[in-house]
Amino acid sequence: MVSTLFKLAICFLILRQGAGNFNLFLSQAEVRKLMGLQAELYYVRSGVINEYAMTFVVPVPAQVHKLHFTWESLAGRPLPYAMSVNISNPSALTSSLNVSQVGEIPIGGVQTWALSLNCGPYDAEVDLALRIDVSRSRYNTTSVVLRRKKICLKDNGYPGPEEVLVAAPGSSSSGQIFYASIGCACAFVAAICVLVIAYYVRDKKTRRHRDPLQESRGLSSACSVERGAGVGPAQTFLPPETPPPLSAASTSSYRRLDDRPSRELHERIQEITVQRCRVRLLSIELEGTFGRVYRGSYHEEGAQAPRDVLVKTAAEHASQSQVALLLREGLALYGLSHSALLPVLGVSIEDRGAPFLLYPHTGYRNMKRFLVRCKLSSEGPPRALTTQGVVEMALQAAKGAQYLHKKRLVHRDLAARNCVVDDDLRVQITDNALARDLFPQDYHCLGDNENRPIKWLAIESLTNKTFTTASDVWAFGVLLWELTTLAQQPYVEVDPFEMAAYLRDGYRLAQPINCPDELFAVMAYCWAMSADERPTFSQLIVCLQDFHTQLTRYV
Ligand SMILES: *[C@@H]1O[C@H](CO)[C@@H](O)[C@H](O)[C@H]1NC(C)=O
Ligand SMILES: *[C@@H]1O[C@H](CO)[C@@H](O)[C@H](O)[C@H]1NC(C)=O
Ligand SMILES: *[C@@H]1O[C@H](CO)[C@@H](O)[C@H](O)[C@H]1NC(C)=O
């Protein structure tokens, strides 16, 4: 035990990343104003640039005349900066800053500054780029370029009561720094919102007539001509009369002018849009109160034979916000490719049918169900997983999570229920779409209306709703615990309302029976009170790999 702890400590020391030296982000109120989302958006966090967020051109609606940015130096000294604004059409828009163009990022707390945008007397769409160069050392300058597209409307040219928009209910913690859960995920979610809306608008326009809900036995021959037949035997889907109330609803005010970004995004969702009639549902895998997971088959256009898929969908009585959430969460891993991730394969948000998400199905099943089945194995005693098996599964999950973090995504809900595993113990992390509905015992509301995986949350996520790579590491510790206990409920004796106090007092999950000290030490590290003291996934992988080598040396 002692030697393992020592070894862990050494590998953390070796791998610890150099501390970054400044933050640049948009406050929650600002993100809400521009994108309608409840999160902070970090452009630079601890000196690391969020490349994904940087590529996103944020549309600035006509009624917004001021952009706010927040920064702070973490270097222990003020950091010199220089900034400049580049406007594509200076006759249509002028700008001014309320900080000096050359100065220092202060230490000892955040500073917010504003870029005022003053439209000229005519309608226009103006691109602007704000470039900030920060000197981190004499030889090292970090440059970021933040792009905006300002919509100017003749009738809306005067600074109006924009602050009204900012004062949103529920953003009570404006002064608090939420370590933006998601950095780029935030931009991505915004992107998805815009694109879902764009898609709906397009689809409404091209709708020819209302398709009766049909029974489709297999693949309809009309498939390539007419979309929108029913999905599978007698499966009725929710007809969305109106687009789901996505949070970026404010886009409507400028979509008219601002068509380009949404068209690009729209193309992206089109890439994975599948025709409903090419999907056939076979059997129900998991069922919740409004969501279902089916096994099915999908006959891709031009493919020889249909392929097996999993279909996540909402039931008829699902509310629009549940549907919106399904899409938003389901697309969280879209576009990623890693052997330990299960990203969405296709999506359907056709008019007149419940939206659904398609995932490749290659013998994987839900890990939580799998573990429970191991425990309740009908043939005699529980089919124990060997320690080696557990470590191998944990390693794969850690590699999937490491990849996510490299892509600057925070999963926020790592747990056995959000992984799949096959008979060869190959593991993939999935998104958490429908998990609340399919595993209701794993989620609790603490007075607010938000159903959260309380027992998997890091202390700071519980108390401040802060989500970071370090809170993913905490959840991974609980996932390890689930693996070694064959999916027992964590902290089963603790009231969800008491969890924060319980953790603050230093209590943690107990060492499971049969769990080797080395493995428990890894979990315990994941649950360090301070986020900085938790290992990263790269460190976890080294340590788990080490332990795995030890285990296999003697067999
Ligand atoms: C301003 O932007 C234009 C086009 O985006 C570019 O050609 C030009 O070099 C930029 N000017 C500066 C000073 O960055
Ligand atoms: C700039 O203006 C905003 C209000 O628009 C204010 O919140 C902020 O404190 C100002 N910053 C500075 C450095 O004066
Ligand atoms: C500048 O800092 C970054 C981040 O710390 C580092 O990756 C890079 O190598 C540094 N460049 C130089 C020239 O020191």
In short:
This protein is of the alpha+beta class and 555 residues long. The chain has helices spanning 2-15, 28-35, 51-55, 163-166, 184-206, 252-255, 260-271, 320-330, 367-375, 387-406, 435-438, 459-464, 469-485, 499-504, 517-526, 537-553, and strands at residues 22-26, 41-45, 48-49, 58-60, 66-73, 79-87, 93-97, 102-105, 111-119, 124-137, 140-152, 279-287, 291-298, 307-314, 346-348, 356-360, 365-366, 419-421, 427-429, 444-445, 451-452. Strand 15 and strand 16 (356-360) form a beta hairpin.
Would you write up a description of this structure?
Residues 24-152 form the WIF domain. One of its GO terms (cellular component) is receptor complex. With 555 residues, the protein is of the alpha+beta class. The chain is 31% helix and 22% strand. Strand 18 (419-421) and strand 19 (427-429) form a beta hairpin. The model is unreliable at 1-20 and 157-265 (pLDDT under 50).
Number of domains: 3
The CATH first-level class of the largest domain comes to Mainly Alpha
Q: Overall 3D geometry? A: globular
Bound molecules: 2-acetamido-2-deoxy-beta-D-glucopyranose
Any idea of the CATH topology of the largest domain?
A: Transferase(Phosphotransferase), domain 1
Strand arrangement in the largest pleated sheet: 3-2-1-5-9-7
Please identify, by name, the CATH architecture of the largest domain.
Orthogonal Bundle
Largest sheet: 6 strands, antiparallel
Q: pLDDT average, as an integer?
A: 76
Oligomer: single chain
CA radius of gyration is 25 Å
**Helix- and strand-based class?**
alpha+beta
Keywords: ATP-binding, Cell adhesion, Glycoprotein, Kinase, Membrane, Nucleotide-binding, Phosphoprotein, Receptor, Signal, Transferase, Transmembrane, Transmembrane helix, Tyrosine-protein kinase
InterPro entries: Kinase-like_dom_sf, Prot_kinase_dom, RTK, Ser-Thr/Tyr_kinase_cat_dom, Tyr_kinase_AS, Tyr_kinase_cat_dom, WIF, WIF_sf
Protein name: receptor protein-tyrosine kinase
Membrane topology: Single-pass membrane protein
